[in-house]
């Protein structure tokens, strides 16, 4: 079932096998509700968010429940400007200034949810 399946429906048919007029039911309205966003999680490769200077870090964002389409954005230190979009963020050649608290934000157009923060440390 998709959100666009909502609308007014009716059925119709013949009442008997002989000649009879086409009979239609009264219409019913079907409303399809979206599933609220929940269970936004963040994972890192390498695990734990500790990365050697010059290495790369891949962050992944997952949603346990929610009806789409979903949009993703990545943020560091609570900054409003996103570092990237999509469910995956790859940071290459990490430097000292890349350490910090990273978070994924997910929106379904009506509501938004955030992952817990991950403390990334460049060693």
Automatic annotation (TrEMBL):
Domain Ig-like residue range list: 27-121
InterPro entries: Ig-like_dom (IPR007110), Ig-like_dom_sf (IPR036179), Ig-like_fold (IPR013783), Ig_sub (IPR003599), Ig_sub2 (IPR003598)
Pfam families referenced in this protein's UniProt entry, alphabetically: Ig_3 (PF13927)
Name of the protein this chain belongs to: FCRL2 protein
Native source organism of the sequence: Chaetops frenatus
